[in-house]
Write the C-alpha cells for this entry.
Amino acid sequence: MSAWKHVTEAVHDAGGRIFAQLMHGGRQGHPRSRILGDIPAGPSAVPVPGPVHVKDGKADPVIPRAMTHDDIRTAIADHVAAARNAIRAGFDGVELHGANSYLIHQFLADNTNLRTDAYGGDIPGRIRFPLELVQAVADGVGAGRLGLRLSPGNPQFGMEEADPAPVYRALLARLDGLGLAYLHLTDDDRYPALADLRPRWHGTLIANVGENRAPTTREAGEAVLASGRADLVSYGRLFISNPDLPHRFAGGLPLNTHIDQPELYGHGAAGYTHYPAWQELQPVATRQP
C-alpha cells in the first residue's frame, strides 16, 4: 500500500485523479499464476477455450471449479477489502472490472454461467452476483467512489451472449439509483450498448468504442460525445504508446500508433511505460521549461 501512495501522490501533485481497477479473473486463471498453485474458480466448470497467460509464457487452460456460495461470499469480501485498501493508498476511487470475460462478465454470460441455483438460470439469477458485489463495495467505500465497467456482448476469450440487451437492461435498472461515480461501457458491433443503455443510465457514462476495433481516434471520441451517448470517452491502446495523449490531442501533435505487442504481457516497464512523451522526443534546446 505504501508503494502505491507514491503513485497516487504523484498523480494528485500533477492535478489528476486516479481510480484503481479491481479485477477478479474467475476462470481466467491457472495454477502456475496463483500463489497457492490451486485451481481457479468461476461461476461454472467451463474452461477458457484457448491458452492462458502465465508468469513464464502461455499454458493450456484448466477446468475451473464451480464457485460455492462460500466462494462467492469470499470474492465479495475480498473486493471490499481491496477497495478499502485502495482508498487508504490514496486512490480517488475504484472501478469494478465487470467486462472482457472476467468474473462479473462470466456470471452474466450464457456459456460461462450454467448454474441452476440463485446465482444462475434466469436474468435475476445472472445479475445477482454483480448486484451484490456492487452494493457491498458501495457500502464499503461509498457509491461516489465506485465505478463499474461492462462490455455487453463482448465475445473475447470465448464469451457468448446471444441476447445481451434484456440482461444489461435489468442490471442497470437495479444499479441506476445507487449513485455510482460512473458506468464505463464498451460498445460492440453486434449489440449497440451505448445507444440502448445510455437512456437507461442517469449518471455519468464513460464510453469505450475501441473494443475489438481499431484504437479510438480523437475524431471517434469527439463523435461519441457530440452524439450524447456518453459524457466521457476512455482510451486504452493510444494511451499506452502516448503517455501524454491529452497534450497531443490538444496540440494536434502526431501520435505514436506502434505498440510492442510481444511486451504487453511481460513483467517489467517495457511495453507499458517505456514510450516517450512528445516533449522527450524534441531536441533539448527546443524543449519547453
Q: What stands out?
A: The longest strand covers residues 93-98. The beta strands are 19-22, 41-42, 52-54, 57-59, 65-66, 93-98, 146-150, 182-186, 205-208, 232-233. The chain is about 35% helix and 10% strand. The mean pLDDT is 94.
